[in-house]
Amino acid sequence: MYKRILIISPLGLGNCLSAVPIIMKLKKTYSSTKIDILLGNKNWVDLFNESPCINRVYLIQRERYFDIFNALKILFPLRRQKYDLSICTFPSNNILFNIVAFIVNAKIRIVHKYYEYKFFKLPFLQNIKVPVLLDAHDNIQNLNLLCSLGIHYTPDDMNVKEFFTLKYSKFMKKYLKKNNIKKSDVLIGVHPGSSIERGMISKRWGLNNFILLSKKLLRNPKIKLIFFGSKDEKTLLRKIQSGLDNSKKVLFPEFTLVEIISFIDSCHIFIGNDSGLVKLSESLNVNTITLLMGYTDPDRAMERSKNKFKYVLANSDCYPCMSIRKIGRKFKCKHGEYICGKTISVEHVYNLVEKALV
Asked: Backbone dihedral region of 316: left (phi > 0), alpha (psi from -120 to 50 degrees) or beta?
């Protein structure tokens, strides 16, 4: 029995969401255990604070990883919590994870064992290393860590919607009503962005593709579109809004992440690149169409157990250029520009939407 567990996941939104199944499984197995989580972005804090599965959320800002004084100021109070167990979530082939786990000093420290082994990343600071699975979704990679504790998972453990609170449902309904969105309308959510860190801008389908797709969809008078994006994606969203002639059938709200949950949950379909918001849509069990290209490894992204999730893969000879075996390497496109996204046609994505609406 573990009294206190720390989940170490100072990553992007999509990676943090892949930690949700392991958090829920631990809570179901050890109902009285206090589970804390260490995040790397303040924008994710409220999302996890809202969940009854989480006892406390800690934050180490990613842009201040190498501010030694700041890091120790955060980590030594964690050490005083005397955790029984710490788990570094996938992917964590990074010196930061290993140092954090070592300083926190839980009795049991679990991490994955990666194919791309580098001594200088200090994996020996962990005391249980579980080999990564080839051809496995990120959620499964994390759940598989629990097998080292004698906890076995089932396909049902991938159902995580109950982790999220829909406390802004009334606000969402008022907003849609104010913008003339009726219950009989078909609401389609779109996220045209992605992170731009570590080559992940390569995950983005072309701006004009989203504009052309939107124009085709808007020919159906029942369809209304709602575009989502972070503060860093405002310029991208403004260009799309301009390309759609500021249509009143298209919404561009500015909400917090916890507010966005209720909006995505109300969508009939959600379309986007491989991003945190697309992962959130899948977590909410919404019909989701994901565009996979560039840095995205399809084996990590494709949740094959549900028919509600559809995937469109790039069709270039160099894709996929990243795989589970290469986690830990620096990403670099051999073409100098991301040509793979150009192989995904607007017509193909449009046809998938049409089929999903039948």
From this structure: beta
